[in-house]
Design brief:
Length: about 350
């Protein structure tokens, strides 16, 4: 059975295709065959040692997958061979608020990930994939989709008429555009390219801001929201964008901190939080129940489809990661089944 493995040391040059024994499901588990795997910026951080330098190696990477049920372990009910399922990003966070165990159960680090032909996982940590989505589209849901869903629907409590600001045109941000529109919000999106803003508008955004031509985009977003500011900021840049996000959000609003593309350390004017009652909320993907809620929402709105940038062959994982690292993509980058 073919699998990708990070061996010896961190670095993309240490990724190798290996052969593993065929797995068999234990009681309560499913034997899954990979149909498609979606890549995330987190994968790059893990593979290069910037996410957790103490991560034990070797490691099979990958957190996002759509898979086919090939066999069912003893005691499993409600799942049949041939079903398509989505493994939850955290195999130990099934429901409720975030706890420390959620991080210890994350696929692709610290647990073995999905970039292998077949693997076994607990049935309780898997959700049936929406039938109308392709394998590639469905594979984008457990990480990017759930992160956006939790930021908007759970932590942000977005309601019709709210205003959401999201940064860039990567996977999470485009999900925020689509899900924000689905929840009845007005969505402002930023990008450095007008062509990408036009595409985001076609996906449901109501306003686009080019942050190169408008470096004060935080204030401009607040003005577009009526002057007081936006209800929710989906903060993906990190240190380099947090100040503008705090300028954009309304008093009592929420900044959902998700990404660190522009750094992890930033000076913070606490008066902006204290005097204006702003909530700074970290978002660590979401639970199995969040994934199930997202799938139900998409099944009820089949016109909303995840944005897939490109699907690479399984053997071309290094090229797929390089494409992701270059930042030239719009939407999600995936690899197909071997």
């Amino acid at each position: 059975m073919r699998a990708w493995s990070l061996d010896g040391a961190f670095g993309l040059e240490n990724l190798h295709l290996i052969d593993l024994p065929e797995p068999e499901p234990a009681p309560g588990e499913l034997l899954l065959g990979l149909r498609a795997a979606s890549l995330n910026y987190r994968d790059l951080l893990i593979l290069t040692g910037r996410y957790n330098p103490k991560q034990p190696l070797p490691l099979i990477p990958g957190s996002d997958a759509c898979a086919e049920v090939l066999a069912v372990g003893a005691g499993v009910r409600g799942v049949s061979v041939g079903d398509r399922v989505l493994p939850s990003f955290s195999q130990t966070w099934l429901a409720g608020p975030l706890r420390g165990a959620a991080q210890r159960g994350a696929l692709g680090g610290p647990l073995s990930g999905v970039l292998r032909a077949r693997f076994c996982l607990p049935a309780a940590a898997c959700v049936r994939a929406p039938a109308h989505l392709t394998d590639a589209e469905a594979a984008t849901l457990p990480c990017a989709g759930v992160t956006a869903w939790r930021a908007l629907a759970v932590e942000g409590r977005v309601r019709p008429g709210d205003v959401v600001l999201t940064q860039g045109t990567g996977g999470v941000s485009l999900f925020a555009v689509q899900l924000g529109a689905l929840l009845g919000a007005r969505v402002i999106v930023t990008s450095s390219q007008d062509a990408r803003l036009e595409r985001a508008l076609a996906l449901g955004a109501t306003h686009g801001l080019n942050y190169r031509s408008a470096p004060d985009w935080g204030a401009k977003a607040a003005a577009l929201a009526g002057g007081e500011g936006v209800d929710l900021v989906v903060e993906l840049g990190g240190a380099g964008t947090l100040d503008q996000s705090l300028r954009a959000v309304r008093p009592g609003g929420t900044v959902a901190v998700i990404g660190v593309l522009d750094g992890v350390e930033a000076p913070l004017q606490l008066t902006r939080l204290l005097m204006r009652g702003v909530r700074l909320q970290g978002v660590f993907v979401g639970s199995r129940d969040d994934l199930a809620d997202l799938c139900r929402a998409l099944e009820a709105a089949p016109a909303v489809r995840p944005v897939v940038d490109r699907v690479f062959p399984f053997d071309a994982l290094p090229a797929a990661l390089a494409h992701l690292q270059a930042g030239a993509h719009m939407g999600k980058v995936l690899v197909a089944a071997p």
